[in-house]
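Title: Prediction job returns without error message
Component: structure pipeline
Severity: low
Priority: P3
Assignee: unassigned

Description:
Job completed but the reporter wants confirmation the result is attached to the right record. Sequence as submitted:
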Amino acid sequence: MADTNILISALLKEGVTREILRKLKKDIIFTTYIVKECEVYLPLIARKTGLAMDHVAESLEAVVQAATLLPDEALAPHRDAAHEALDHIDPYDAPILAAALAADADIWSDDKHFKQQRLVTVYTTTELLHVVGFG
């Protein structure tokens, strides 16, 4: 389960984040919540990359198509536990934790606060590089 910032990072520049996404493809899980959140930033991504908006949107679509998409309704049974674990840290990330719980998946995030919860394992990009065999 990759968080929104991972997806945005992959869209912004070529680098290890994109490399990991390419290597893991269907092993990466996004939710429609994450995709919608990322869509809000498409104009900023287009501006920062100098790419046309439609090109950035197509890139987002390609990444999402290559991954596994978890529907938001799968999160419902896990929302309370996720909010209990993260509301005091960052309530906006509770849907990502709920998705990880729903998918029985780890989280890929460079946000340090995710490591404060104990419901799922969290890997930073640096840690994941070693797990997938880049490091």
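Comment from assignee: result matches the submitted record. The radius of gyration is 14 Å.
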